[in-house]
């Protein structure tokens, strides 16, 4: 049990068992029933939690890139964010989207297969209205999509693939190419109905219009890059990305970094009155004896002891001792 019982709760439980108000056998039966988990083989979970988190991070970056792209293209307020990331059968995804919608099908070369970006008609027509000089008002007439409207939307969403490519660049170098723009999901069969797909839902707001953009990624297409979606792989890749001689270059740069070195001849304390009346020829007595070593500070920290002297007619100090870090802390 996750909760810790108090002494009073334990006494009450024992009392209930002894009086017959609670049956111990029924408690054991309930505990066994809790251990049984229902598993639906039609909804096979083929993506691990780690992979789902990685896909979510990738498309959070994609959502930010889309926000920037659509804001520049439509010249109006645009807000796009990841609403959910789920895995489900392809047939269930097709049933969940409107009967008439905007379906952008593209091929993510070098991966073998097709991906899908489904845009809610409210959002798609708000974008189209802005591109044609309107206020961004949505008119849901997707069943009457003209050739001109198809061409404009195809070009608009073709450029979003550049953002998709950039978002996935940390995992694989894709060269996505728009394949088709459809309006009826019933005529679109990318994979088998029972194939597991991961669906990323993007909450989208265009001016006063809001809706969803759904990205459908089939498992069979992503299978090649799934090992790269684990955190362990990313950590290994970061180590591998170091170029030959990179550590030597970093060490060389660190060695060339300038450091401020100061030698203290001594210290003294005077009053403000004495400071205000200092004049030429006055002498300030230091607390440092000429027989004691001088403190040498590096970057403000005491590191060495030294004795004063001259080298080639220049004032200099000679290091006589090294201050250990432990001694400095004391």
Structural write-up:
The protein is of the alpha+beta class and 330 residues long. The protein folds into 2 domains: 43-234, Chemotaxis protein chec; 257-329, SpoA-like (Surface presentation of antigens (SPOA)). 38% of the residues lie in helices and 25% in strands. The chain contains 11 helices and 10 strands. A 6-stranded antiparallel beta sheet has the order 1-5-6-3-2-4. Strands 7-8-9-10 form a 4-stranded antiparallel beta sheet, with no helix packed on it. The protein starts with 6 loop residues before the first helix and ends with a helix.
Keywords:
2 domains, chemotaxis, extended, membrane, Surface presentation of antigens (SPOA), alpha+beta, 330 residues
What's the CATH H-level superfamily name of the largest domain? CheC-like
The gross shape turns out to be: extended
How many domain regions?
2
Radius of gyration, CA atoms, in whole angstroms = 36 Å
State the helicity in percent bands.
Answer: 25-40%
Q: Tell me which CATH architecture of the largest domain applies here.
A: 3-Layer(aba) Sandwich
How much is the average pLDDT?
Answer: 81
* pLDDT < 50 runs, ≥5 residues: none
Helix-strand pattern = HHHEHEEHHEEEHHHEHEEEH
CATH topology descriptor of the largest domain: Chemotaxis protein chec
Number of strands: 10
| Derived structural class | alpha+beta
Keywords: Bacterial flagellum, Cell membrane, Cell projection, Chemotaxis, Cilium, Flagellar rotation, Flagellum, Membrane
Organism: Halalkalibacterium halodurans (strain ATCC BAA-125 / DSM 18197 / FERM 7344 / JCM 9153 / C-125) (Bacillus halodurans)
Protein name: Flagellar motor switch protein FliM
Domain Flagellar motor switch protein FliN-like C-terminal: 253-323
């Amino acid at each position: 049990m996750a909760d810790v019982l108090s002494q009073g709760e334990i006494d009450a439980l024992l009392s209930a068992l002894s009086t017959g108000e609670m049956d111990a056998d029924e408690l054991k039966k309930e505990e066994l029933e809790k251990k049984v988990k229902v598993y639906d083989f039609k909804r096979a979970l083929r993506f691990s939690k780690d992979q789902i988190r990685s896909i979510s991070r990738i498309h959070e970056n994609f959502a930010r890139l889309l926000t920037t792209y659509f804001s520049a293209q439509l010249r109006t307020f645009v807000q796009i964010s990841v609403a959910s990331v789920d895995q489900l059968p392809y047939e269930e995804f097709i049933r969940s989207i409107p009967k008439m919608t905007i379906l952008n099908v593209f091929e993510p070369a070098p991966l073998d297969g097709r991906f899908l970006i489904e845009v809610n008609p409210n959002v798609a027509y708000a974008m189209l209205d802005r591109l044609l000089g309107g206020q961004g008002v949505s008119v849901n007439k997707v069943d009457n999509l003209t050739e001109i409207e198809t061409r404009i939307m195809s070009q608009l969403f073709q450029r979003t693939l550049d953002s998709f490519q950039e978002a996935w660049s940390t995992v694989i170098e894709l060269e996505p190419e728009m394949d088709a723009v459809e309006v009826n999901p019933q005529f679109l069969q990318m994979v088998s109905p029972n194939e597991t797909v991961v669906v990323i839902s993007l909450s989208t707001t265009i001016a006063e219009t809001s809706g969803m953009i759904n990205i459908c990624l089939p498992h069979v297409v992503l299978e090649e890059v799934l090992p790269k979606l684990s955190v362990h792989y990313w950590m290994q890749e970061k180590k591998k990305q170091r170029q030959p001689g990179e550590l030597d270059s970093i060490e060389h740069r660190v060695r060339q970094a300038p450091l401020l070195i100061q030698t203290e001849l001594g210290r003294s304390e005077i009053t403000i009155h004495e400071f205000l009346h200092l004049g030429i020829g006055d002498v300030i007595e230091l607390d440092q004896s000429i027989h004691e070593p001088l403190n040498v500070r590096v970057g403000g920290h005491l590191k060495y002891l030294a004795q004063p002297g001259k080298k080639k007619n220049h004032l200099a100090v000679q290091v006589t001792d090294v201050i250990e870090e432990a001694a400095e802390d004391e």
